[in-house]
Amino acid sequence: MDLNQLYSEVIMEHYRSSSHRRQLTSSCLSKRGHNPLCGDDLTLQIKMDGEIIEDAAFHGVGCAISQASTSMMIDLIKGKNKREALMLVEKFSQMLKKEAGNYDMLEDAQVLRGVSDFPARIKCALLAWYTLKQIIEESN
Ligand code: ZN
Predict the structure, then answer these.
(1) Gap from CA of 8 to ligand 1 centroid (Å)
(2) pLDDT digits (tens, 9 = 90+) for 84-137
(3) Helix (H) or strand (E) holding 90
(4) What is the whole-number distance in angstroms between the Cα of residue 96 and the centre of ligand 1?
(5) Short-list 72, 67, 79, CA closest to 106
(6) Is the distance from CB of 127 to CB of 33 less than 8 angstroms?
(7) How far is the CA of 63 from the centre of ligand 1 (A)?
(8) How far is 30 from 9, CA to CA, in rounded Å?
C-alpha cells in the first residue's frame, strides 16, 4: 500500500468535514496537542456532563491524517463516559501497534489501521487520542 491509497475516501471525507472543527464556547476542558515532526498543532476541547463526554471539538492546523483521526475520534467519544473513552484510546493505540484483536468498536477509525505501516505517520494519527487521554487523566 502506498501513501495515496492511505488517503482513502473515508479519511478525506473526515478531513474535509468541518462539523467538529469549531470552538466550544461554554466551559470545557481543553488541551493542545503538538507533533513537531509533522507540524500538527491541534487543540482538543471537550465538554463534560459529569462522567459523560457531552460535546467535543477541535481547532488548529494539521495534516489530513491528524485531522481525520481527530474527527473520527470525536464521532466515537461523544456520549461515552471517561472509562469508555480511555478504552477507545487504548484500542486505537493497539491497532496502530499492529496488535491482533477486534477493532469493530473503532468504527470509521479502523481505516487508519494502514497508518501502522508508516511510522512517521503514527504520531499524526495518535495525536488527538493521546491529547484526549491527557485531558481525562488530568480531570480525574
Ligand atoms: Zn501529521
Answers:
(1) 16
(2) 999 999 999 999 999 999 999 999 899 999 899 999 899 999 999 999 999 999
(3) helix 82-96
(4) 15
(5) 72
(6) yes
(7) 4
(8) 29
